[in-house]
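TA notes. Do not distribute before section.
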Amino acid sequence: MKVKLKNSLGLVGFVCASLWFGSCRSEDGFTVYKTTAEEGLSTTPVTFELPEQAIDTLTKNVFIRLRNDNTYPYANIFLIARLTAGGERITQDTLEYAMAAPDGKWLGTGFTEIKESKLWWKEGVVFPKARPLTISIAHAVRNNGVAEGVSMLKGIIAVGISIEDQ
């Protein structure tokens, strides 16, 4: 079936609406994003409270999602991801992910300058019964030879999580 649009504004509106409505749901589970400040991702954690419909007695896989643009200055990223239940830390990991290939091309998906990366975090998670359940994500990037970390990570425009059936 061929669809003819009268102007490009209609196509742009359709694409924007599709991205907006698709950003918080996933056919395979639960996905949510939070946009970062214009300066980028801070070392202050971005926290997600998990709704009941995202977690049940089934075994789940947990992914971290990042959206970056061309201003991101590094080929990789270091993240600290933490799961808490009822205020108690269940697990915390320091993670490193590649963001670009050796030739400098972004590894994420997307057809504009914004790329989306779906990064594996945990496999086979059975969430505890204690509530609230939260996942927090912060960056831990440092420049080579500098002890103090980067305070604001420019180019990371959104951080998200996905919880999917195993």
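Switch to the second chain here.
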Amino acid sequence: MENLSTITTFLGWCTIINIGMLTYTSIMIIIFNAPVKKLHAKMVHISPDKLDELYFNFLGNYKFGIFIFNLVPYCALKIMA
């Protein structure tokens, strides 16, 4: 049972850290939209108009990954315990 407790704690902290990173990234994209777009457009040679769609896809996929790989296993282990 100790091993399950350790894994549950680990997944809980992974979820918190990943949600924090998602929130931080979202806020930075909202606050610093123009400078970030300018920097990324120069780095990867993509038009700034296309970057909005790419940011949205990235944040959506990241959120989906958090739910699938961190939150759902955490909830399942909490139910099992």
